[in-house]
Amino acid sequence: NLDDQQAIFERYQRLHAENAISTDAFETQRLAYDTARTQRDVADAAAALAQTYENDTVIRAPYSGVVTDKAAQIGEIVAPAAAGGGFTRTGIATIVDMDSLEVEVDVSEDYIDRVQPGGEADIRLDAYPDWTIPGTVIAIIPTADESKGTVKVRIAIHAKDSRILPQLGARVSFMASLPLQSRSVLVPLAAVRRGGADASVFVIEDGSRVSERPVRLGAVRGNQVAITTGLAPGERVAIGDFGRLHDSSRVRIGE
Predicted confidence band at 197 (pLDDT cuts at 50, 70, 90)? Predict the structure, then answer.
């Protein structure tokens, strides 16, 4: 209709300019043309609204992932908020991004000052207690749970493995941060001789003799332990039967 009215209006414009038609006839045709344009605009708006309604029937995931739960069924009403006696679904499905899983743990208020964003952590899943997964503290949530006396901490998982599933129970050990001048040295647990609260290692000196040296232990990471004082980087320690070792014992370095 707009195309037809536009063609007639343009013809009437030429005729009016040549004084071939009256002004009343020209204005009548202008009104018809303006009405057709308004009807076209209203139709476009209605089409856009209908397109929006159609788009709302298609659910697009905000990221790639795996659907772990489908809440809504065919025929149910879905809306952002529940209404009408609770028969409206507010959720359709739960989707999980398996490449960005993280751990959330509750840390006691008494120890939260030892946790720092960016600090290292060891994660052990309850389902696989012998498997240590390295992690890093993402953030400390700036609020506390008054009833439990805890603060929530988010930890990134530095591993992609099919065994890591959403909602699994986990325990986290946080690595203590040391000043640069007292960085710890990691040694195998088998290299540490313990006696109550004391600990020592047998340091290999001159390539063939050992010297027992007291050390201070730090955090344990899997089958390794951090030596915070008493051992320098690069020094070699003996592993074996401590009952046969003493100061100045001769040892043979295996290949």
Answer: low
